[in-house]
Write a structure and sequence with these properties.
Elements (H helix, E strand, L loop, with lengths): L6 E3 L1 E2 L7 H5 L5 H15 L3 H14 L4 H36 L3 H14 L4 H16 L1 H19 L3 H14 L4 H36 L3 H14 L4 H32 L3 H14 L4 H14 L2 H29 L3 H14 L4 H52 L3 H14 L4 H11 L2 H24 L3 H14 L4 H37 L3 H13 L6 H15 L3 E4 L3 E3 L5 E4 L11 E9 L5 E9 L2 E10 L5 E6 L5 H5 L4 E7 L3 E10 L2
Parallel strand pairs: 1-9
Antiparallel strand pairs: 2-8, 3-11, 4-11, 5-10, 6-9, 6-11, 7-8, 7-10
């Protein structure tokens, strides 16, 4: 059974820095103390080889002295770091020489400077740096003049002074005719000048067009032209003012036209009182309007005539009948009886042929009738299309299933499947052909079942001999599936089940022990130890989900208690490369319960060691070693960093990762805490 979880548990480096009190606590002979003192002096002068010798001599006098061992380990670490510095130095020198050979002097100078940061007194790097610096100084005046012209051109270009910018770039190219950057800027300036000239021409065309439309009182079109012009040059305040002025005129014209249209409709409908009010309202928009005044005078003449009174009586009856028909139509429409509603609206229009409300309701009822008919036809079409689509899909799925069943030699199932195809499509050639093929396979079916039975019985016996009772149970079930009721398979299955029950019973005590120890570590918040014990319980393969659930619970708890993220997106750290992650010190009250969670993937094909160190501006405080497995999975590394004295006693501000003999891709790194 595959492991459900892959956790890598960390081992302490044991490289803790001891305090002065710890050193004073060591009672030592003068000769031992002299050697330690001499080693410390050489270490402080960075003479690590000499310091190593003194510490080794001290260990010969006191072989098990922890302080001397710690100092020796720290010295050996410094020696390894010095070797890595030499490798980095020569790598920068090689890069610089290559850049120098290719006449890429700026990059060469940068690489020589990087090398000198490692070994500041190296004569070769100093000489090369001086040689490049002298050459570059001789070019400085010419380059300064060139750069001054290019910079001026850039500023002119930003100020949209395109013609002047083009002239500056042309002058710069006379100094360095082949400078690709200046050539590109010159070309870009010319392109922008041409584009700007084109914009000016279009702007002028649109403003002229807007002015012409405004004179003809076509305000909406005029505003649209000016708005297009403003999109070209958004800072033209005169255009914005013109648009606002035209919008005011348009609003007045729109308001006046709307009121006149309303008044005319009332007048046509012989609703003279409403018409007179509407014409009067139009006069509030445009005072002394001759049309509105004339219509008001005409209405006054009509309403004061004897004929009008008769008309009003007739109109009252018409209004009443009209309202009745409209009301019945609305009721029918509310019940979605659009045919009946349409009939009522037609009757209403017979009384008031041009009534806008009745016309709108009639149009809406007609639209709803048409829409309902279209919906009905569309639903019928969709249903037919969907049914045909499903039929074809069902046929194809059955054919695919039948073909797979033939491939799997399940001929009886395939025969049933292809008969279902013919029930849906009696003339299906594929189904007819496949049924002919299946007819010749029944003898093979019986032979295959016997072969499957024999193989399953053999595999079952092998599994029983190997004490793999779960596999034996599976194989004997396969045998019974191919030969139902077989006495031998039935007996062997019962024996395998009995043996598996006995095996599980025997493992239960060991399983219970791991779980109990894991629970104890969990209760004392030693989550790394708890995970190790729960994992051992899982490996016993009892099928109990409890340890897996507890591991999941620990992971979720630590994630929920996250204090800070150090890595939130994937980062690759190459073999031998040291990557430092800096942060603000963790609150001292939580440090003892801190964990470091790392998710990482081995980018190679072999297992390697990853060093995890931490410290402050004063130097390294401590660390751990982590074994990175050779699988290609993203593994979880849980480090109980709060277990080390230097972590919770000092304000640490950085964590470093150093993979040795392999590269790693880190997707997540965070500092968290237990409950």
């Amino acid at each position: 059974m595959k492991k459900l979880l892959k956790y890598i548990f960390v081992l302490s480096l044991g490289i803790l820095c001891f305090t002065t009190n710890d050193i004073q606590a060591q009672e030592s002979a003068p000769t031992y103390q002299s050697l330690i003192s001499s080693g410390d002096k050489e270490f402080s002068k960075q003479e690590y080889i000499k310091a190593k010798t003194y510490y080794q001599e001290a260990l010969r006098l006191k072989p098990n002295d922890a302080s001397a061992k710690s100092k020796l380990d720290k010295t050996l670490q410094k020696i390894r770091e010095e070797n890595k510095k030499e490798e980095q130095f020569f790598e920068h020198i090689d890069n610089a020489d290559n850049f120098y050979a290719n006449n890429d002097l700026d990059k060469a100078l940068a690489e020589y400077n990087k090398a000198l940061k490692i070994f500041p007194k190296d004569e070769y790097a100093l000489g090369k740096k001086e040689e490049i610096t002298t050459f570059l100084k001789n070019e400085k005046d010419k380059l300064d003049e060139f750069n001054e012209m290019v910079t001026l051109g850039d500023n002119l270009l930003k100020a949209e002074k395109y013609a002047e910018a083009v002239m500056q770039y042309e002058s710069a190219l006379k100094i360095y005719p082949n400078n690709s950057a200046a050539q590109a800027k010159y070309k870009d300036a010319k392109t922008q000048k041409e584009a700007f000239d084109s914009k000016v021409n279009e702007f002028d065309r649109l403003t002229a067009q807007g002015k012409d439309l405004a004179l003809r009182k076509r305000y909406a079109e005029a505003i649209a032209s000016y708005e297009q012009a403003l999109q070209i040059f958004p800072n033209e305040s005169d255009i914005s003012a013109t648009i606002n002025e035209l919008q005011t005129k348009k609003n007045i014209a729109d308001s006046y036209n709307a009121k006149i249209t309303e008044a005319d409709a009332y007048y046509e409908d012989r609703s003279y009182n409403e018409a007179r009010d509407a014409y009067q309202s139009a006069l509030t928009v445009i005072a002394d309007d001759s049309y509105a005044l004339g219509m008001i005078a005409r209405i006054d003449e009509i309403v004061n005539s004897p004929e009008y009174r008769k008309i009003q009586n007739d109109k009252a009856k018409i209004d009443n009948d009209f309202a009745n028909f409209i009301g019945k139509g609305e009721t029918a429409e509310g019940q979605k009886n659009y045919e009946q509603a349409l009939a009522y609206y037609v009757k209403a229009l017979e009384l008031k042929p041009n009534n806008a409300e009745a016309l709108a309701k009639k149009k809406n009822a007609e639209d709803m009738i048409l829409y309902a008919e279209q919906q009905r036809k569309e639903l019928e079409r969709q249903a037919a299309a969907e049914a045909e689509k499903q039929r074809k899909a069902q046929i194809q799925n059955l054919i695919n299933t039948g073909n797979q069943q033939i491939t799997d030699k399940k001929y009886a199932d395939a025969e049933s499947t292809f008969n279902q195809v013919l029930a849906l499509d009696p003339n299906n050639a594929t189904a007819t052909e496949k049924l002919g093929v299946i007819a010749g396979f029944y003898e093979e079916i019986q032979r295959q079942k016997q072969e499957n039975y024999n193989m399953a019985m053999s595999e079952g016996r092998y599994a029983m001999d190997s004490w793999n009772f779960a596999e034996a149970i599976r194989q004997y079930n396969i045998a019974l599936a191919n030969k139902p009721g077989d006495e031998a398979a039935t007996q062997q299955l019962a024996l395998a089940q009995q043996s598996e029950n006995q095996r599980l019973a025997g493992l239960q005590n060991e399983y219970n022990g791991y779980v109990a120890k894991g629970d104890a570590q969990f209760q004392t918040k030693n989550y790394d130890k708890a995970i190790e014990l729960y994992t051992k319980a899982i490996q016993l393969n009892t099928g109990n989900p409890y340890p897996s659930n507890k591991i999941r619970e620990i992971g979720e708890m630590l994630k929920a208690n996250k204090i800070m993220d150090l890595v939130t997106s994937s980062e690759t750290i190459a073999n031998g490369e040291t990557k430092r992650y800096e942060f603000q010190p963790v609150d001292a009250s939580t440090r003892r319960g801190n964990y470091l969670l790392i998710k990482g993937k081995n980018l190679g094909e072999r297992q390697f060691i990853m060093y995890v160190s931490y410290g402050s501006p004063n130097g390294r405080s401590g660390g751990f070693t982590v074994t990175v497995p050779k699988n290609q999975d993203v593994n979880d590394f849980i480090i109980r960093i709060g277990s080390q004295y230097k972590w919770f006693s000092e304000d640490n501000t950085w964590i470093e990762i150093l993979p040795e003999n392999g590269s790693i891709e880190i997707t997540t790194m965070e500092i968290t805490k237990g409950n």
